[in-house]
């Protein structure tokens, strides 16, 4: 390989789609111009379990502008619904919810009718005229009251090494229960879909983290071949896991469009966002930690319960951090999923890991106090040099440096460990820390690179950009690997017709798609080098490839940069209208031989009002080991976002079910609190920025989730330090402190 | 001078003609012959005199981004839905419909408002500026530039509302300090968590002294 000059990877390049986003030109799901589109508004159930007894759509159908009211009585059939295999979304166990299929109600807010009209106002009015009566059956929506119904999920088996429950034998041990509430993604863009049938061909404009998976879901449900289903989702107004599968709004729009013979557009209402498109399940957890007097962990036990629906079993990685975070000879984890009369949860930023880490990292803090040890020292005492879960070497791990840099930047050494030891006026001051661990993997992905005659480069891959800046880092990777300047590169994503890419989730887009973009651009450059070297009479004909540098759309002789040949000229000389290369890649066996993880250390200062119990996060230092940083601006933004989510999770976010009715009672953004600008502390984000040698050729590891994992525990630990009160049930609201 | 441009629908139905005349003129019915069953059914139902009342529209004059529109809107149509669905200005975003998120922030006669909480008919004769009207041709408004420079967004959905709010925040004189900016920008939720960068962008524009 030739020695390439320093490229643009790592630079704080502005987003390639920034201009579209600040001018309002970026089009989100409901904003695509589709000729003749009609508007759909959903009517949803007002009981959690039962059947539809009466359904009166007459008034709605007579209302002005109404084309139809679709219900289970008149809906077109979903062919896949009649087949158990086709009704299984392979990423969860069970049978997916069937829209307008029968009279059965499985959860509160289940769609029962779709009013379709010429205008949004007419559709909304028509929806209000639909009358539904239910035969109600008793429902169960309370996890705590149904723990006995929990079962070991098929996708997450219990784990043990050494002796189970060995923590009880340790000289210092503790056993505590922790809980996390239902948290709702609440992206700012409410889920929407426009469905369009052209004969047997289906086009769906939606918001998805996975154009290919969405396409596969629709192929499975509607029994259509790949070429008949197109999913288009170029911009996604926030997802956080909530756009990871086909949800009722897409299905309803598709069925509606089929029924009326026109395209149908449907946007969920904010209250429908709470349970029609997934949420983070409630968790109830028990941690057992035991250590010898010097802090060495003797045993760890983590038991967890989470809720799912009656029709699907959603399992998450709630006990995963516990298995790998610290060295201990004895470890066992137990996880059970409880079916309730609610809709199926789904992956929510830092899925599982962030709930599980709240318990683990809170318990580690409690153990540190029990041992009279510094919490950082306790973590270093049990530092894992290899992955304790499977004894594999880490692909890379710089957590020790995260602790050191974080502690130094934060001023941790000046902390008086005694709870309630610092006060500023009416405010109690506390400092806490935690650490985070999250998988860093690479999946198979495909990309196509097409060099045009004018020297511009088009890269295509069916990935998504839900906000991290996918198109931007891919442009940077492509620039360095191809030698084409970034401003001449266009990266296309968000469409199922593009070369296949995995879902944008689980922090693996930079590693999976980034790797194949790197590979395809290297292949393109090599082809250009070969063309240049094989050209008769070429100045480069005798030059070994290692002496050729690719830069600014040209090949240059390493020793003499005045000898150069542009890509445009190479194509011209070869009479090529363009040069196209496609690559698929998933990495080699080294991936399986190593444990890939990203790490972080969080340091947090809180002020707690001594009288009201109000908690303000004042200062955050977050140090992240996510391999090489591909773009310092967008990477920092991702961690800022994780901190904001962490503050929300720690202090305010909680969707409350009224178990009498089985519905969410705080189903809007006034009652379900998310952090706003005034809640922001001073946030210092730092990266270790050392390339990972295993996971991807760019040296990147996963970044999207890691900043959130363990963060809520750092807040809870700081609140304990400030007040002497240990809050083990999130969120930490004032009532728990006064 | 602003252009005079008809909005959607093109003709002013007015209050003067009787309802049947209005209905006959309406685009819905002229399309009956070409439309499938459900539409015809709806149209036939619409002949009902009582239902026809619901069709009644109100004339509305509105200047949007310097363009004068003569519109005819249903009284129940919000300013937000008018912008997005009838004028096809989708830069203004719908995030909740309850005035809780700020994504739909526009300027009406220079003041920031949540357009989801305004009925369009309330704005008769007023000037509306949306994100599409902020730049000067190809030249971005300083606040748009600053949002790009400071990475004041991720997914971009709350961004038009944040920018419209940010411009108003400075014009109102509420950008005097970091704390003041945070307080006066707290009506605009950003779920991606770009808040710190948004504050930096606003401070940059404020300190740069450019006219906003």
TrEMBL record, chain A:
In this chain the Aldehyde oxidase/xanthine dehydrogenase a/b hammerhead domain maps to 23-138
Name one molecular function that GO assigns to this entry: iron ion binding
Q: Which domain of life is it from?
A: Bacteria
Instruction: Please name the Pfam families in this protein's record.
Output: Ald_Xan_dh_C, MoCoBD_1, MoCoBD_2
**Gene3D superfamilies, A to Z:** Aldehyde oxidase/xanthine dehydrogenase, a/b hammerhead, Aldehyde oxidase/xanthine dehydrogenase, molybdopterin binding domain
Coiled-coil positions are: none
Q: InterPro entries this protein is in?
A: Ald_Oxase/Xan_DH_a/b, Ald_Oxase/Xan_DH_a/b_sf, Ald_Oxase/xanthine_DH-like, AldOxase/xan_DH_MoCoBD1, AldOxase/xan_DH_MoCoBD2, AldOxase/xan_DH_Mopterin-bd_sf
User: Which protein are we looking at?
Assistant: Xanthine dehydrogenase family protein molybdopterin-binding subunit
Q: Which organism is it from?
A: Hymenobacter fodinae
Q: What is the lineage of its organism?
A: Bacteria, Pseudomonadati, Bacteroidota, Cytophagia, Cytophagales
UniProtKB/TrEMBL annotation, chain B:
Q: Which GO molecular function entries does the Swiss-Prot or TrEMBL record give? A: 2 iron, 2 sulfur cluster binding; metal ion binding; oxidoreductase activity, acting on the aldehyde or oxo group of donors
Q: Where is the 2Fe-2S ferredoxin-type domain?
A: 58-134
Name assigned to this protein: 2Fe-2S iron-sulfur cluster binding domain-containing protein
- Pfam families in UniProt: Fer2 (PF00111), Fer2_2 (PF01799)
- Name the domain of life: Bacteria
Q: Which PROSITE patterns match?
A: 2FE2S_FER_1, 2FE2S_FER_2, TAT
Listed A to Z, the keywords are: 2Fe-2S, Iron, Iron-sulfur, Metal-binding, Oxidoreductase
Is the Iron-sulfur keyword given for this protein? yes
